[in-house]
């Protein structure tokens, strides 16, 4: 499918940024397309772009940050296995430390990591293989590539893009990785039903589910007891 010039420019911006907040992207769309297209047309244009890049195994997808619920549009490769773009962007020594960071995030109860933990992991990796890394620079690189995100309290977590791109690696590495019972996406940070204990949900999914049911309080979609 041949894309129009405006669609090509829009696609190029997404390819360069790889992750953009929904409101930011809408503002860019309005600026680029002007009066030619309304925001209601953005989904149709993105669908046409996805058809154009399908043969490359690339995709534009709307996802939500599991920590904040904020919607993002991401551009990623469905063809990448294991570490996705991390394989291309980072050195073997950096990837070794990143694997430890991911392990720590997934194994935590909160899905977040502080900078002190990053430093401790870096020291552990140094003791194991003798490779000293600039952890501040590595974290900055992960943030700049939208693979990690940072909370207002300067805590680190997997971003919306990071979770999506690392999905093959997470599924292959962690046998007990869970899915949100409502959206079926991989979940690291979420809430667990205290009644049936094996139903874990994103906070934003639970909020939307409760709102749609017009319930006074949150109910578990699996056991139908109060969450």
Automatic annotation (TrEMBL):
<dbReference type="InterPro" id="IPR036388">
    <property type="entry name" value="WH-like_DNA-bd_sf"/>
</dbReference>
<dbReference type="GO" id="GO:0030915">
    <property type="term" value="C:Smc5-Smc6 complex"/>
</dbReference>
<dbReference type="Pfam" id="PF07574">
    <property type="entry name" value="SMC_Nse1"/>
</dbReference>
<keyword id="KW-0539">Nucleus</keyword>
<feature type="domain" description="Non-structural maintenance of chromosomes element 1 RING C4HC3-type">
    <location>
        <begin position="180"/>
        <end position="223"/>
    </location>
</feature>
<comment type="subunit">
    <text>Component of the Smc5-Smc6 complex.</text>
</comment>
<dbReference type="InterPro" id="IPR011513">
    <property type="entry name" value="Nse1"/>
</dbReference>
<keyword id="KW-0862">Zinc</keyword>
<keyword id="KW-0479">Metal-binding</keyword>
<dbReference type="GO" id="GO:0005634">
    <property type="term" value="C:nucleus"/>
</dbReference>
<dbReference type="GO" id="GO:0061630">
    <property type="term" value="F:ubiquitin protein ligase activity"/>
</dbReference>
<keyword id="KW-0863">Zinc-finger</keyword>
<dbReference type="InterPro" id="IPR013083">
    <property type="entry name" value="Znf_RING/FYVE/PHD"/>
</dbReference>
<keyword id="KW-0175">Coiled coil</keyword>
<keyword id="KW-0234">DNA repair</keyword>
<keyword id="KW-0833">Ubl conjugation pathway</keyword>
<protein>
    <recommendedName>
        <fullName>Non-structural maintenance of chromosomes element 1 homolog</fullName>
        <ecNumber>2.3.2.27</ecNumber>
    </recommendedName>
</protein>
<comment type="similarity">
    <text>Belongs to the NSE1 family.</text>
</comment>
<dbReference type="GO" id="GO:0008270">
    <property type="term" value="F:zinc ion binding"/>
</dbReference>
<dbReference type="InterPro" id="IPR014857">
    <property type="entry name" value="Nse1_RING_C4HC3-type"/>
</dbReference>
<keyword id="KW-0233">DNA recombination</keyword>
<dbReference type="GO" id="GO:0000724">
    <property type="term" value="P:double-strand break repair via homologous recombination"/>
</dbReference>
<dbReference type="Pfam" id="PF08746">
    <property type="entry name" value="zf-RING-like"/>
</dbReference>
<keyword id="KW-0227">DNA damage</keyword>
<keyword id="KW-0808">Transferase</keyword>
<feature type="coiled-coil region">
    <location>
        <begin position="39"/>
        <end position="66"/>
    </location>
</feature>
